[in-house]
Structure to design on (427 residues):
């Protein structure tokens, strides 16, 4: 075997509600689409029509031997008006989760993944101080409805990406460009996470459960100077790392020390994660305040560097803060031709296994091709192909590889030669 999976490591796949479900026009990303801000005019209210086809998708997943699935809830669907919950939508998710469990697939549930109900977006979403109570009201209802069948939660997905894309670069809703607001959003999201952590534990404890695990999913990167000899590049890399990454790592984990994020008033110092959740894709090269990629490196279809070593560097960075189990809650690549995805998966898993870190889960991003936010349908990250004209799902070669790898408990030389002996594009 080239790599064997330790018994403690389990493999799964990930997705997010808005990226696959369709059938909802009451959210911030549908509005962004209406404003013409999606590259290929892809309509998120269609997406993969997974809301209708969830049973087919779950069967496909189960048939591939996948036993872990990170999925999200569409808040806009569950709480279409402030404080008014849609019981039919809760029943739908309950059916979906029960089906997954019946198929032997353990869910990890994401409560917020980039998308807001329109009413929440209109009041300033997480830039408005009252977001904390509103978000907690939603979380509380979710645990009331689904807490008996779901033990593992992600409170918020990638607060740094949400805040910077929407409030600093203005490329995502609500399209603003303000550093102060970006930091305010990250600070408010932090308070949401810290309080939700306690709330979920408390509620499930009262229900008689002791197996609750909660974290937030941290988008992590490796930051290097574009030119090692250039002082501004070196400073740029350090600054980006601080603003985008380490401030979030410490504040969301302990409730403290997240400068330049605001102080968390009324929150005790503690540990607010039961596992480190790492979303890892690539390495960034800083040239002053500009971010890009090093020249001459392997890249994916979006030009992101393929840098497998980074996955362990990021996980180690969090592990140094607290000795918690590690879940890789996202790792994957945009490879529309599915030419190098298997090699990418293999190399990242190899680095993780050889790191000696207590990695308990690896969720591949993503299961099916889907609505890739501002990139629309053109950027394909799935191990299952989706034909958007017919909604037909077809397992890709990387999907076959993933499935065989799970069944064989690792990657043999034969498996590697069959699927991974491919070239990366170099830029
Ligand atoms: C996000 C996903 C996204 C993926 C690929 C992550 O930052 O959580 O929603 O599809 O990156 O871009």
């Amino acid at each position: 075997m080239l790599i064997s999976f330790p018994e403690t490591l389990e493999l799964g796949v990930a997705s997010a509600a808005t990226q696959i479900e369709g059938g909802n026009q009451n959210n911030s990303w549908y509005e962004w689409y209406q404003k013409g801000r999606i590259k290929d005019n892809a309509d998120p209210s269609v997406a993969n029509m997974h809301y209708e086809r969830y049973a087919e998708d779950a069967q496909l997943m189960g048939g591939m031997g996948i036993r872990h699935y990170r999925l999200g809830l569409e808040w806009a669907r569950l709480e279409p008006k402030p404080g008014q919950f849609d019981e039919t939508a809760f029943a739908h998710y309950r059916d979906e989760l029960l089906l997954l469990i019946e198929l032997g697939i353990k869910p990890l549930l994401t409560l917020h993944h980039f998308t807001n109900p329109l009413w929440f977006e209109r009041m300033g979403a997480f830039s408005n101080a009252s977001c904390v109570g509103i978000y907690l009201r939603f979380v509380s209802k979710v645990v009331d409805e689904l807490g008996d069948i779901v033990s593992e939660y992600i409170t918020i997905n990638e607060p740094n990406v949400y805040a910077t894309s929407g409030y600093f670069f203005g490329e995502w809703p609500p399209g603003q460009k303000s550093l102060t607001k970006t930091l305010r959003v990250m600070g408010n999201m932090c308070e949401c996470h810290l309080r939700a952590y306690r709330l979920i534990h408390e509620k499930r404890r009262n229900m008689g459960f002791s197996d609750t695990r909660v974290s937030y999913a941290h988008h992590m990167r490796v930051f290097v100077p574009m030119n090692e000899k250039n002082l501004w590049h070196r400073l740029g890399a350090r600054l980006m790392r601080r603003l985008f990454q380490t401030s979030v790592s410490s504040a969301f984990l302990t409730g403290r020390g997240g400068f330049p994020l605001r102080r968390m008033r009324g929150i005790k110092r503690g540990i607010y994660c039961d596992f480190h959740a790492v979303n890892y894709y690539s390495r960034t090269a800083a040239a002053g305040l500009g971010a890009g990629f090093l020249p001459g490196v392997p890249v994916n279809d979006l030009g992101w560097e393929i840098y497998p070593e980074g996955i362990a560097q990021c996980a180690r960075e969090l592990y140094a803060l607290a000795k918690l189990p590690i879940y890789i809650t996202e790792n994957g690549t945009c490879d529309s031709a599915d030419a190098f995805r298997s090699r990418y998966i293999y190399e990242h898993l190899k680095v993780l296994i050889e790191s000696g870190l207590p990695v308990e889960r690896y969720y591949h991003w993503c299961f099916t091709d889907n609505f890739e936010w501002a990139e629309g349908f053109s950027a394909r990250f799935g191990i299952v192909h989706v034909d958007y004209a017919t909604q037909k799902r077809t397992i890709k070669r990387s999907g076959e590889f993933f499935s065989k790898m799970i069944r064989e408990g690792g990657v043999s030389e034969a498996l590697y030669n069959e699927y991974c002996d491919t070239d990366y594009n170099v830029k």
